[in-house]
Amino acid sequence: METRLYVGNLSYGSTEGDLDELFKQAGEVVKCELMLDKFTSRSRGFAFIEMSSHEEANKAVEMFNDQDLQGRNLCVNIARPREERTPRRDGSGGGNRGGGNRGGGRGGYGSGNR
To answer: Which domain holds residue 16?
Structure first.
């Protein structure tokens, strides 16, 4: 039975404290994870909340899905399990979003252009 919730459409100003305080109204909050951009540390607009029981998780969905928080209507559902990602052919694992050598050999380290 799932106790982990996905909470989407969050205001970028929402904090873990805001979410914890809100979801306590449905029961015991075991864990609250506001997802942040790793470069800017700004909210990515969604979070995961773990409730202490399946019943409390369902209650939270009923209470808070489509409810207003800081001017945004929340999207609250039971979280789906994370899907396994297949490794990329280049062996990078898919975590690198870099564009490679976009400069076409113009300048930069090791390009030979000085």
So the answer is: 4-78
The Cα-based distances of 36 to 20, 48, 111 in angstroms read 16, 12, 35
For the chain, the residue count is: 114
User: What predicted TM-score, i.e. pTM, was given to this entire model?
Assistant: 0.71
pLDDT in tens, 25-43: 999 999 999 999 999 999 9
As given in the structure block, the two tokens for residue 72 are 């945004």
Query: How far is the C-alpha of 9 from the C-alpha of 47, rounded, in Å?
Result: 9
List, run by run, the mean pLDDT of 10-residue segments along the chain (114 residues). 94 94 97 96 96 98 97 96 77 55 52 53
**Number of folded domains in the chain?**
1
CATH of the domain at 15: 3.30.70.330
State residue 21 phi and psi, 5-degree precision: -60, -40
Residue 63, in any domain of the structure = yes
